Amino acid sequence: MRKQQFVQRKNLHAQRGIGMVDALMWLVIFAVILGAIIQIRNLVWPKAQGWLEGSSVTSSMQQINSMFTGAPNFAGLTTASVATTTFFESKYLAGGGTIGNRFGGSVTLAVGTINTPNDTMIYTETGVPSRACLMLANQMNDDADRITVGGTVVKALNGTITPTTLSTECNSSPTVSVVFEKILQH
pLDDT tens digits for 134-157? Predict the structure, then answer.
């Protein structure tokens, strides 16, 4: 009888579960993995967002240019006139003729002049995070005739992006405005 009680007590002791050291070890492993995931997200995600926004801007600008192909210029182009699902994803259309972007900022369109009156589409993105700015601007290098970040020209008319100026302007503030100018192409 005593032997049987001893065996039962031994089995109860062995089945108590994990110990405090084991629990702390798993907690540390979990914290390290979570920290690595957050670090990767903070490094990669803004660049991915910049690339995705660049693709959206390129597509929208090409579609808007197509709409004006038979016209002599961009006269009549406004943010409200293109705030439709023809040019932008519905999730960025806030209503009332306004357009948002994936960063929580806004998109505005206007008409400008480079060579002849109203020959240029001016596409402005506000609220662009500094970490996404570099990717967005570089993505647009071939599609925009002139690029301005934070009020400073980083790509002169039909030139190429000046990397040091772009880096300085993109990092001048946590969020910046980026302006793309495109001359009407017939």
Answer: 999 999 999 999 999 999 999 999
